[in-house]
Structure formats: C-alpha cells, structure tokens
Amino acid sequence: MTTNADEPQPRPRPRRRAPAGAAVLREDVTEAIRAAVFEELAAVGYARMSIEGIARRAGVGKTAVYRRWRSKLHLVLDLVSALAVQGLPAPDTGSLESDLRLLYEVTSRALRHPLASQIIPDLQAEAARNPDIAEALQKALREGQDSVARGIVTAAVTRGDLRPGLDHTLALDLISGPLYWRSVVIRTPKLPKGYLAALARSTAAALKAL
Prior knowledge:
Helices cover 68% and strands 0% of the residues. It is mostly helical.
C-alpha cells in the first residue's frame, strides 16, 4: 500500500513535560523560622504566638512557614522533638561524681538560658491543656536528659561504682529531679555557690545506697 505524499500526515503528539517536583526548601529560611519560634515563644508564650508573628520575626512570608508546618502546634511539636534528638553530651570522666557534676553544669547552663527559662514553664503550663504538647515534652525529656542519666548509671555499674540490679527509674529520678526542681519549678534565679558540686556528691552517695 502506497501513501500519497500530498496527503496530510498525522502530527506527532507533543511530549508532555514531566511535572515539577516539590520546591526545595531553603535550609537558611527554615533555621530562621525555627529561631523566630523560640524568640516568639519567649516573648509572648504559646497561647499568643501566631504564624504571622513568627513570619514577621523571621523576615519571611507566612507561606514560607506554612510550606514547612501546617500550624503553630505542629511547628512547636517539631522543635520540641528535635531537642530530644540533639540531647546532651554524655559525660565520660571515669568517675560517677565527676560525671554527675559535668551533667549538672551543662544542664544548669541550658536551663538558665533566657529563652529556655521562659519557654519551658510556658510549655509545661500548656501541656496541662494540650495532650499533644504534653506527649512531646515527655518524649523530649525522656530521650534527652534520661538517656544521658541512664548512660551515667550504666557506666557506673560497669565500673563497679554502683551495684548491678539497682532501681534505674529511682536512680534517674534522683539524678534529674533536684536540679529541675530548682531551675524549672521554683525557678531559683541563681544557684548558691558550690550547689552543683554538693548536688553531685550527694546524688552519688544516694545512688550508691540504692
């Protein structure tokens, strides 16, 4: 069968352009928003915090915030969860008392930071009304502070400083409780001189008595 060259030939179908993928989120913008969230939380608290205020403080549009988080709740939950991942450095001095002293020094500095001293009490109050925030805070504390304290106890047991089979839950309460009580609950503005050394010495003695 022959084809007349003068007959119109079917046009080739145009190639469809592949749909563009999701726009790349600039990391510097994301970090600016995260920093703005901490500052906004410290300034106005969770209840009064708004996406508009966060965007204004970060120097971006609201769209930039909503492209990353659906709401201020999701934003705060993400940041709190990130703190758990970062955690605290695990002391490894070879001595139970020295490990505790180093842990207390690092934790005390973190809790005395102006932003932390405003944000933590506010989020704790909000946690009483919001189970999602309560769960995120518990997870952050459990995976952050408790994981480091558990490492200190485990290392001390391995060295023979603490007896095997001690009550780990009680041990973690003894390690973490006093400093959080001072810094977060009653919010002592300045710790007495020598307090952290005395706390480390007393906690080590209490752990050995378990």
